[in-house]
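[Automated response] Your request has been received and processed.

Submitted sequence:
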Amino acid sequence: GVAPSLLIVWCLCTVMFFRRFGANEKASYSRILIASIALFLLLAPHFLQSMIVEGNVFGILRRAGEVAGRAYIGEGLVAYLTLLPGKLAGLPLGAVVMAGVAATLVIFFLPSLRRRYGGLLWIGGIGLMSFILTGLLAHPEPRYVFFSMVLLAGSGIGSMYEMLNARKKIFAWVFTVISLALAVLSGLTHYQEAREIIVAAEKNPSRVALREAGEAIRDDTHGNVCAVWSLSFRPLFSWYSRCHTLAMRGTSAFAVDARMHEAENLYAVYFDAMKEEQVSSLNSASYGVSLDEIYKSKKVSQSLGEIIVNRMTHPVNDDERGVGL
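Generated structure:
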């Protein structure tokens, strides 16, 4: 999960830091104490929110880990390696990423290069470790390794530039011009491809209905603070409705979530083809709310069915409701 992974990374970084820090005669442990206190204060709001929402200081991190959805450990890494160099990020970027991996490993194992190119090792090392850990712990998704690809590409380009510059500066300048030209050409090409995909997706009936549902919520709020419960497409509803969007997880979780948003306009999205529990006219009493329909689509797909948006109003008291809203 996410929490154990972060703990492992923290332990490794701590060992590496104190190994170098302890060798410095002018090391100031008071500064480390001050930095540690500052770090704790900065992280405290996250852990407090996690405790309130999930009932556990690592609850949010645990939920983030559940999103990984991998079939087995390393599924993502296997997929990324089969997609390199051309299919993961395009041939030019894929090539320099592989050069970055090679350069990082060479610099790491040669002490003379480590002293000379510490910056490249730092950039490449972060990118490589992030790439490996993400591949091990999460399902394959190219956007998950975007940060890693950028860092490894920077390490690859930087190492090739240094190698050419050591021979003749003109070679390094020519390499720089070619790299910039390829970056611009590749960017324009992929921008056009991405634009065509996005335009086509925006015309998809399911996408149109989801967008209309989110916009119906936004119009109904009249700019007031709001919260939306949905089984799926929560980022999309958050974007179009401008509301805080929560997962539909049953009456008990709904009661906890609703307490935090009781002064806001509340909405529930219902997909009539989904079998999981949702707030609907049939069970609204068990959730302690009454429903007013503000949007209903036609049947958009076999998996979603009709999309219905209800405004949830007039929550009753705890005794009447029985779920402690």
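Summary generated for your ticket: The first strand starts at residue 226 and ends at 230. The chain is about 65% helix and 10% strand.
If you did not submit this request, please reply to this message.
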